[in-house]
Amino acid sequence: MAKNKTRFYCKGCGHEELRWLGQCPGCGEWNSFVEKNLAADTGKKGSRGFKSETRQSGPVGFAAKTAAAWPEAMGPDGKLRPVALSQISSAETNRLKVEPAEVARVLGGGLVEGSVVLLGGEPGVGKSTLLTGLGLWWVRQGIRVLYVAGEESPAQIRMRAERLGFDPNKEEGFHILPEVHLETLLDTLHDDFAAHPDTKTIIVADSIQTLHSEHIDTYPGSPTQIKYCGGVLADFARRTACPVFLVGHVTKSGDLAGPKLLEHMVDTVLYFEGSGGGPIRMVRAVKNRFGTTGELAVMEMRADGLFPVDQAGVLFLSGRGGKEPGSAVCAVKNGSRTFLVEVQALVSPSRYGTPQRVVQGVDNKRVALLAAILEKRAGLDLGGCDVFVKVAGGGRMEDPGADLAIMAALASSLREKPIPMDTLVLGEVGLTGEVRRVADMESRLREAGRHGFRRVIMADPDPGRGGPLKHDKNLQLITVTSVQEAVALAVHPGAFDPSH
After folding, report:
1. Is the overall model pTM greater than 0.70, yes or no?
2. Which CATH number fits domain 315-495: 3.30.450.150, 3.30.230.10, 3.40.190.10, 3.40.50.720?
3. I want to staple 449 with a disulfide (CB 3.0 to 4.6 A). Which of 23, 144, 215, 472 is the partner?
């Protein structure tokens, strides 16, 4: 008779211990361990047995899809064998078209067959709307879409599809599968592939937190369940060359819920972000094995779906006044895109002992660092002042090229001197107060000239490292070497020297 074994599992992260502990060593949670009795040998397949079963050629639908996806890897006996790299076709030739083009660029130019994409975002930001819209477009291109509904009823999904302009009575190819049990889901997919062996299929799992397996003895949505179900679906996608989209929840801090291992398993991680409650939505690629990391798609949420934003480069300048002190404009890079962003600062004497530092859209420590440099190298006294810094339009800046613009906005607010509306401030700032040139300067200058800017305060372009910069002849480049010089030129328009 098999002897029972007792284990203690953390409800938060799935960490296993032989005895109960007050605090989990894995995630730091208190009183999160629960006791589980495990049979030494019950005859039931464990997680390894089930996962290995998906790798075999038992289900005819799965075997057919595997043979079609990797014909060079199938031996005469129907078993997998090692294949030389020269015999494997490039994934670049197997990209599926994606519309709108904004999303296609974030994915690297299209959707690679067999890839796994993890899409995360706040509740209600439009993740399901985005994937439903993409699915309906693919259906019209002759590609089947299987939408695994874990959070919504089929009637709700149909209502959204009709709102996006889809007529279920006239158009076919969009199928809904209301199933959250992983084993049942895979059996259904095997049968579906057997019925459609030659049809391209895209799978959407909304969401990965709702899926659960009977071989994992934890509740749905636990890190162990997410890791296991995500791993099985990722293995399934690569074996069958069927792209899989996984919808993920996010925590209060904005990170994807669940184990970090899930992000390593997938090929692409996208964050779907809102813009301060407005209609603007941004899809940002934080990981992409088939494209550039950091690419950004800007779209607008309307009643009938998501649409690309025209003139996205100046999106964050809409409604800009420009005549008040404390405002500076810079050109920042997000992937291959260039955006003109307005930085606003408010500096006022502190009324309550300890000065406040309130920041939106920029890292708080970064602003504190730049304020310290401004005090030390430019002689501006900010120690007794409240400092508020905001990126207008709900954007977020991580580009080091915005350093000088943040400092110019702070100096402008402190001295009550506005920066001219047609002036762009661009440069990275070092701890010693020097202003450094930033990467891809020509595309930033091109975007500035296209939208009416006439002066750029920047670091010396250093012609010795690649030749002179190409820019609009109407754009005046005013080069500086130090923060003190840059601040003086920014807040005193009469200090501009045409000879520069």
Report:
1. yes
2. 3.30.230.10
3. 472
